[in-house]
Write a structure and sequence with these properties.
Blueprint (H helix, E strand, L loop, with lengths): L7 E6 L6 H11 L9 E6 L5 H11 L4 E4 L16 H4 L5 E4 L2 H6 L4 H13 L3 E6 L12 E4 L21 H15 L4 E5 L7 H5 L6 E4 L6 H13 L1
Parallel strand pairs: 1-2, 1-8, 2-3, 3-4, 4-5, 5-6, 6-7, 7-8
Helix pairs in contact: 1-2, 1-8
């Protein structure tokens, strides 16, 4: 990472995968293979059911991994059955993925809902990572990090678009990132997500406007995730 003067984010989004035993096996495999580097920010976002155990294992192992969540409540603590409030999650996590296209499709979340969740995150000192699908997706006030994840590039296939599940071209992703930085300020941190793995990840990071990746399916495999992190260390 000697050639870069920016933070690099590698964020694992497990989605709805891994039980507690599988999650702990992943931490045990990945943690000891990571180098401690001030500019390399490695985050794992497990399921709610494994969150506390993952946090404990990372803390006990003293591994250079931050913990995040894949969502949080738009409300505070109180009578909100089934919701996980930012106030309570702040004891465990540093970051929250918000506005993912899967939640917009499957749970009908809109931009107003994402903005409410972002406000809760900020108020409780959790970094909101706002997922944007194109340059028209709004970034809520106070948010300083976004993940550009074109819907057709997500490997779970939310559309029938030809080529779905294929990563965007790095130069195109970098261009979109630049548009967001022009609109919301050069201090905005933009990461890329959408079918990234160890074979294509370097091309995205070396762009001027992109400072990390949001890794979905490829993050589930400990060996593959280690490869991705090692590539980041060598840039």
């Amino acid at each position: 990472m000697a050639g870069l003067d920016k933070n690099i984010w590698v964020i694992a989004n497990w989605k709805s995968n891994k039980n507690i035993a599988e999650a702990l096996d992943w931490v045990a495999a990945v943690g000891p293979n990571l180098s401690k580097n001030e500019n390399l920010k490695i985050v794992v976002c497990p399921t709610f059911s494994t969150l506390s155990e993952v946090k404990k294992a990372i803390t006990v192992g003293n591994f250079p991994i931050l913990v995040g969540v894949q969502d949080l409540s738009p409300f505070g603590v109180g009578a909100y059955t089934g919701e996980e409030s930012a106030a309570l999650l702040s004891q465990l996590v540093d970051l929250a993925i918000l506005g993912h296209s899967e939640r917009k499709k499957n749970f009908k979340e809109d931009d107003e809902m994402v903005a409410k969740k972002a406000e809760q995150a900020i108020d409780n000192k959790i970094i909101p990572l706002i997922c944007v699908q194109d340059e028209g997706t709004p970034v809520p006030k106070g948010c300083t990090m976004i993940a550009y994840e074109p819907i057709w590039a997500i490997s779970t296939g939310l559309t029938n678009t030809p080529g779905a599940g294929r990563a965007d071209m790095p130069e195109d992703a970098n261009k979109i990132a630049g548009i967001f930085k022009q609109k919301y300020g050069q201090e905005l941190e933009v990461i890329y997500g959408g079918s990234v793995d160890s074979s294509n990840i370097k091309g995205f990071i070396t762009g001027d406007n992109i400072c990390g990746v949001l890794v979905g399916n490829a993050s589930l495999d400990a060996e593959e995730f280690i490869k991705i992190c090692k590539i980041m260390e060598q840039i």
